[in-house]
């Protein structure tokens, strides 16, 4: 699980202050860029990634070999056009793909593990802003993100209002709901119940908490898909048997149904690329996220000083961060007088729609970044 | 976890044939009754329990001391009136409260554990019908059930059409959806990932797979509640600290939010009264449930021979078995010409509404049983 990354890295020149009151020394941010930075440094777009995402936005993931997670959106001539824009994507603080997180070495030469401080979405954004400082980018053409990436985009608008001229937040929310927290708590308990977790000190052990992390991913994965999408994709169809014969109920506990097999595959694949402690820390940051609370309990206040233009996008089949959550942000932006456009797109894929083939999203993204 | 039950038990006089093709010898069914059986044996109502329910319908649970799970519905003068009806509730085959299940001793004197055969909802119903035979009850006044209890009620109507004059199925479905299966699979994987599960052979061990079972219960519990119910009950409210001071974010991994604390409590409480292997077997039975598939792929066929009257009830906030699933059953009953009434009730509690204070449900139940 050592970060096998060819990314560029930026060691922060100063200690990073955190919402907890602590400060973190020696932070490194790993990032990828696509497209040329204009001489006047005005054409940069920062794309923020989701919970289990990374900086490999439009280039192959070095561990899985899979294409970048938003290749369909980012590239020459694509909606986020790298012929025009300099696109930056950085691994968030607390993650495990080259930026400082619980698997990183602390000053004593040992992994932080659970000594890593609990961070927030705003702390992640502080790391991103420090990177922008390092890259001498005073104002982004846009900050863009889906899901947790959208939380970062909104947090940047609220806390660093001059750093982005445009804010595009997709399939996201300004606060985690009780149900959102509940699902994350199930995942954390699954990880921490795994004896191989060892209180977080598994880095020097022979085994890692793959079983717990896999269960966490399986539970979360269900929330990323719509009920109707699952029905369409899998229904109650049975898995073909290993010998190639058509599926039949085994009257056992093998993966009889295709949906079981799919979930197991999602769970185990995830454990090969993600650190369990990072999963704990990042889900915690998301659960703590409540942009109104940070700003005197009123979401409108969060955006009061913002000169940016906003665009919010939700999906009608997203039950993790449903349209009502985006509307809530839009109403707050209206109240604070910010220019905002909002669209609910119809797509069958649930929360994951922002990553998948939804041509209407391409048009919205392209149009907003003009 | 030895069944500490004061229930009556009925040892089946014959081997129980199962859908798997196997047969189970020496099956015992544990049950409770409330109210007097009429001389002509015509006033019996069978109430079927849900996944983690039991026969303690209207009497205290012997392990937890808590009131029966449907005390609000069953008793003298209540909607299921024990002054008029003889009410029977039996622990289902595969469970762990006195009826034969994986924790029971096999012929070799050792617990079945995973040697227990995989059973189906129809197999559970076969066990219930065998009990009715033993009690010399040829036709029930009604069979009643919510959730998995409703599946049993529908299965009895389909497979033993003369055994119940009335069929009341609440908050249920005629088939498990891909999403239903997915959530159950997460729970099973959580249990089987727990090293204390020991391939199911934990009965003689010092520890049991409580961590895995607890995670399974937490994940399932979220599906029993509505998003808005969770928000109303917990929102993002923080837990008071142990010293009594008002809650604050701990910037750690304790249960900061009330919803986290609640879920942990639900998970750990459950492990004190339920057997992990029973959870595996019963969830499997539910996932296998597809009443149409059993009847040539057409749900109408399932009810073609039924002389019973039906009543279906759904709740508008139930996203586990949403109203569409009940409607699907109603359409099939209409197609087969069976008399059926259907109502979607408005209640904020999600799937669990059938167990909670919904006066409209009381009226429907009382009216249908007249």
TrEMBL record, chains A, B:
<feature type="binding site">
    <location>
        <position position="217"/>
    </location>
    <ligand>
        <name>substrate</name>
    </ligand>
</feature>
<comment type="function">
    <text>Transfers an acetyl group from acetyl-CoA to L-homoserine, forming acetyl-L-homoserine.</text>
</comment>
<feature type="binding site">
    <location>
        <position position="352"/>
    </location>
    <ligand>
        <name>substrate</name>
    </ligand>
</feature>
<keyword id="KW-0808">Transferase</keyword>
<dbReference type="InterPro" id="IPR029058">
    <property type="entry name" value="AB_hydrolase_fold"/>
</dbReference>
<keyword id="KW-0028">Amino-acid biosynthesis</keyword>
<feature type="domain" description="AB hydrolase-1">
    <location>
        <begin position="43"/>
        <end position="246"/>
    </location>
</feature>
<comment type="similarity">
    <text>Belongs to the AB hydrolase superfamily. MetX family.</text>
</comment>
<feature type="active site">
    <location>
        <position position="318"/>
    </location>
</feature>
<protein>
    <recommendedName>
        <fullName>Homoserine O-acetyltransferase</fullName>
        <ecNumber>2.3.1.31</ecNumber>
    </recommendedName>
</protein>
<dbReference type="InterPro" id="IPR008220">
    <property type="entry name" value="HAT_MetX-like"/>
</dbReference>
<keyword id="KW-0012">Acyltransferase</keyword>
<dbReference type="InterPro" id="IPR000073">
    <property type="entry name" value="AB_hydrolase_1"/>
</dbReference>
<dbReference type="Pfam" id="PF00561">
    <property type="entry name" value="Abhydrolase_1"/>
</dbReference>
<comment type="subunit">
    <text>Homodimer.</text>
</comment>
<comment type="pathway">
    <text>Amino-acid biosynthesis; L-methionine biosynthesis via de novo pathway; O-acetyl-L-homoserine from L-homoserine: step 1/1.</text>
</comment>
<keyword id="KW-0486">Methionine biosynthesis</keyword>
<dbReference type="GO" id="GO:0005737">
    <property type="term" value="C:cytoplasm"/>
</dbReference>
<dbReference type="GO" id="GO:0009092">
    <property type="term" value="P:homoserine metabolic process"/>
</dbReference>
<dbReference type="GO" id="GO:0009086">
    <property type="term" value="P:methionine biosynthetic process"/>
</dbReference>
<feature type="active site">
    <location>
        <position position="351"/>
    </location>
</feature>
<feature type="active site" description="Nucleophile">
    <location>
        <position position="147"/>
    </location>
</feature>
<dbReference type="GO" id="GO:0004414">
    <property type="term" value="F:homoserine O-acetyltransferase activity"/>
</dbReference>
<keyword id="KW-0963">Cytoplasm</keyword>
């Amino acid at each position: 699980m050592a970060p096998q990354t060819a990314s560029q890295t930026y060691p922060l020149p100063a200690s990073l202050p955190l919402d907890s009151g602590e400060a973190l020394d020696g932070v490194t941010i790993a990032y990828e860029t696509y497209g040329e930075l204009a001489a006047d440094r005005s054409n940069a777009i920062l794309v923020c990634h989701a919970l289990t995402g990374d900086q490999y936005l439009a280039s192959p993931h070095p561990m899985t070999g899979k294409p970048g997670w938003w290749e369909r959106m980012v590239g020459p001539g694509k909606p986020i056009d790298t012929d025009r824009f300099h696109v930056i994507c950085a691994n968030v603080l607390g993650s495990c793909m080259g930026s400082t997180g619980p698997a990183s070495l602390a000053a004593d030469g040992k992994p932080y593990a659970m000594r890593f401080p609990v961070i927030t979405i705003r702390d992640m954004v502080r790391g991103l802003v420090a990177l922008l400082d390092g890259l001498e980018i005073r104002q982004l053409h846009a900050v863009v993100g889906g899901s947790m990436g959208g939380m970062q985009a909104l947090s940047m608008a609220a806390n660093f209002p001059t750093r982005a001229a445009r804010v595009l937040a997709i399939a996201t929310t300004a606060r985690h709901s009780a149900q959102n927290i509940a699902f994350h708590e199930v995942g954390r308990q699954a990880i921490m119940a795994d004896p191989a977790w060892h209180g977080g000190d598994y880095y020097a052990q022979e085994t890692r908490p793959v079983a717990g992390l896999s269960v966490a991913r399986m539970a979360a994965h269900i929330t990323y898909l719509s009920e109707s999408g699952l029905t369409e994709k899998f229904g109650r169809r049975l898995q073909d048997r290993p010998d190639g014969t058509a599926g039949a109920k085994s009257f056992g506990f093998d993966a009889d149904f295709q949906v079981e097999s799919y979930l197991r595959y999602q769970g185990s694949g995830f454990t090969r690329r993600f650190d369990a402690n990072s999963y704990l820390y990042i889900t915690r940051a998301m659960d703590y996220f409540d942009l109104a609370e940070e700003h005197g309990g009123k979401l409108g206040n969060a955006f009061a000083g913002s000169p940016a233009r906003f665009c919010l996008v939700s999906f009608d089949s997203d039950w993790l961060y449903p349209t009502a959550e985006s509307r809530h942000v839009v109403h707050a932006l209206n109240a604070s007088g910010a220019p905002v456009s909002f669209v609910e797109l119809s797509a069958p894929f649930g929360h994951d729609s922002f990553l998948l083939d939804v041509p209407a999203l391409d048009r919205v993204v392209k149009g907003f970044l003009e």
